[in-house]
Inverse folding.
């Protein structure tokens, strides 16, 4: 078994490192807030069952409540109406092979620092490919904005007219689907820009990715620890029956 | 980057397969039931936020409630009083490298079919090692009982005097800790046997593994798709701040 034996040895020697791309999930996890009268995703909350006490003499454990789309989370195609009737469109039905795959990281952190409403376009992707090679079919694509380094108010960046956070333009998403990527991941709260309700179609990442059976990842961090190409993403959502998404632990395998 | 490029190629060619070891998480997921007056882990339940309707015109999503130890789940050392004061004893603090590691699978399904109270002993482990080679330090160890193939009543196997399900004897856990394994995973509802309150110490897997800073995995399935040695386990719990455990998706990478 040469591949996996080599991987195991590289992991034990530290030649391959495991990088955690996940925000901590807690009562303080920032949330998407939609305008009235739409329903809202739940903040993380927990109920203690026992803590080495008369409710459980030797053990500590909790129950918790959370949204399928709270914190670092996975979006399945059924999350959007465009993906409603696709096969294998829920987190329990997505093929497991899609949870372990090559990843490319697009660093547009400089542009996002200059403009919180920065839109990643197909032109940007072509320029990135000219420098880094083509985005491979079957890979995950992560958009590095350095947004995860912001404190919570600057992270959500909400104003009177909604959130001002970077995201993809419609033609960038069309380009990625044509490249046959598995999914698109971001550091911000949505795969779409904060002002993406103004784009055509509204919410192009959600509408087009999920309509094409592709996936989303949100609220990632530590993308600055990944190379542009060559890492492997590990992003297995909970196996919720019929689930539209789920909080998850996202890891990357990175060669030293 | 030879290791990860080779892994990516093997995954895309199907030379390495991703096997899902996770039970589906739903309102029907079987639960541990403790005697009165102890607190109980919550069944999975969900609250619909919207389904392409006036609560969310283009999107479907849910909130959900679940126990940290409901369904296929990870046990961190803080879950047991013996691990209460250890460093990095919660799911958010466990080093990420421990979530991607070699795995050995101990097939005692025949013995478990013959005796639902089968106890895996150090003698069994020595016999297994004589046939398969030593259990490597830094690996996960999974106990195949074929319990996951049972229907729900035979799976929980509750009688007047409690559950009758297989698990490890005290000396097996001592032996695995001496081998310096990362953790121990099972198909049944607990890492301990159903009658483990009668052992010395009570609940030896929980008491000794967590006291030694090791981890547990429960409610696994598809262990019959894994080789005895040579696979790599992927078992990243949710990054719950201070969490004692969490439901998770467990995958294995298996060479074809
Ligand atoms: N943008 C949205 C609009 C409505 C519902 C959810 C979203 C998300 O971003 C999400 O998936 O977290
Ligand atoms: N055996 C137990 C006794 C008390 C609390 C939890 C357990 C578990 O098995 C668990 O971790 O699911």
């Amino acid at each position: 078994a040469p591949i996996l034996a080599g991987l195991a040895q590289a992991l034990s020697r530290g030649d391959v490192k495991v990088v955690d791309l996940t925000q901590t999930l807690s009562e303080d996890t920032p949330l998407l807030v939609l305008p009235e009268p739409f329903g809202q995703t739940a903040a993380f909350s927990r109920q203690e069952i026992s803590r080495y006490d008369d409710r459980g003499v030797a053990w500590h454990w909790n129950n918790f409540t959370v949204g399928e789309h709270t914190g670092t989370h996975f979006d399945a195609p059924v999350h959007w109406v465009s993906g409603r009737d696709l096969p294998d469109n829920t987190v329990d039905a997505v093929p497991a092979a899609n949870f372990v795959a090559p990843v490319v990281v697009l660093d547009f952190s400089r542009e996002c620092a200059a403009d919180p409403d920065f839109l990643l376009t197909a032109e940007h992707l072509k320029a990135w490919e000219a420098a880094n090679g083509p985005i491979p079919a079957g890979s995950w694509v992560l958009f590095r904005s350095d947004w995860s380094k912001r404190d919570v108010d600057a992270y959500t960046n909400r104003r009177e007219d909604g959130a001002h956070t970077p995201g993809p333009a419609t033609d960038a998403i069309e380009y990625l689907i044509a490249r046959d990527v598995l999914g698109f991941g971001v550091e911000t709260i949505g795969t779409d820009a904060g002002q993406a309700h103004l784009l055509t179609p509204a919410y192009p990442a959600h509408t087009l990715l999920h309509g094409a059976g592709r996936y989303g990842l949100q609220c990632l961090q530590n993308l600055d620890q990944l190379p542009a190409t060559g890492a492997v993403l590990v992003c297995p959502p909970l196996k919720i029956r019929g689930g539209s998404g789920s909080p998850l632990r996202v890891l990357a395998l990175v060669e030293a």
